[in-house]
Amino acid sequence: MSVAEAAKAVYESDYRVRMEKENLGKFIAIEPESREFFVGDTFIDAAMEAKTKMPKKMSFVIKIGSDAAVHIGSANL
Known about the structure:
Elements: H1 3-22, E1 27-31, E2 36-40, H2 43-53, E3 60-63
């Protein structure tokens, strides 16, 4: 299982309900092996907090309350 898949599974099982009540629209970086998480106002905030606290581990960032962390381009084609 990839880091992304594992982090998404941790988010769904452990954090989704709580985070969507308390931090909707923010970003959560999850290190799936330890299940540690870091919440930030922006993608970079969450990612940098995870990297600072766990420099040798890989985390995955999810936008709380959304299916995608970042939208690129336009759906209006």
